[in-house]
Task: structure prediction
Amino acid sequence: MSNEFDNRKIIHVDMDAFYASVEQLDHPELKGKPVAVGGSSKRGVVSAASYEARKFGVRSAMSSVLAQKKCPELIFVKARFDRYKEISKQIRNIFFEYTDLVEPLSLDEAYLDVTQNKKGNPSATVIAKEIRQRILEVTGLTASAGISINKFIAKVASDYNKPNGQKTVNPSEVLQFLEDLDIRKFYGVGKVTAEKMYKLGIFTGADLKKKSLDFLEENFGKSGSYYYNVVRGIHHSAVKPHRIPKSVGAERTFSENLSSEIFMLERLERIAEELERRLKKSKIAGKTITLKIKYSDFTLNTRSKTLSYFIADKSLILETAKELLYQEEMKNSVRLLGISLSNLNTDKNEKEEKKESVSVQLKFEF
Result:
């Protein structure tokens, strides 16, 4: 028996190496060369890497020092976010030519629901091709796309034929596609989770599908039900044009590692000020404060506390952040501190996603 969720046509559009591609577009002398957007100093971090750089193993979030070791010819360029936002707006305007159901995930990717679209075109595959062609014509940049019945599968599919490609997973192909998928390709399965799954004998979607809901919840907590559902093609999350944030945060990476708690408190106060500004701008408050600490050896530690009331005030945020800072003894000097607020007063407005099985419809033009 089919239901409304089988009939959705979702496209995930993802720009190819967006920041780096913009730099190569604006600076033709960089075309065909390994480019990294970010700082080249010893404290620098790669924000984005061109495909030429990726061949050497250079990746976003990698330290600039390591990136340079992997690719001695690597060219570093400073990020120009105003320029990226300008082009992102042009791309988003193209999306709106086809549908108003656009959910941006970042400057360079978005979900589109084209089940009912402004062009009256029944084929999501054709629409995705048109959108990618329009992006190329307007911006000079390439994009990849994934097309399927839900956001999860579309997101996975968009990575399939990158760069400058697309993949459609038709309703009749969904279950086989997910069973054949390497577990590392599942959106939401990071490196640590993948290693844990390997130890449990889970290497593909087919292996994951053999595990019971109880087994997955016992080993992966709340994420267990998510894994249980998505491998069966069940992911009812709608494309939300005005996506409500789950958390708001601010963080700082320091030019020199901090070993003194006095200096850390000074930095936390500035971070709390920035967080308060962002909260007030969005008219948001929250109950759960999380302190993020990245040590000089790059290990990450997070500590959280949930209050019984909503806060958005700097002094209350800072007070709780201090408490979390003193919760444990520092094991090393610190290179990054961050504070985020979750359990927001916007959460109550979101309806819980329906948890019902999907029966994939076989005869459906895609």
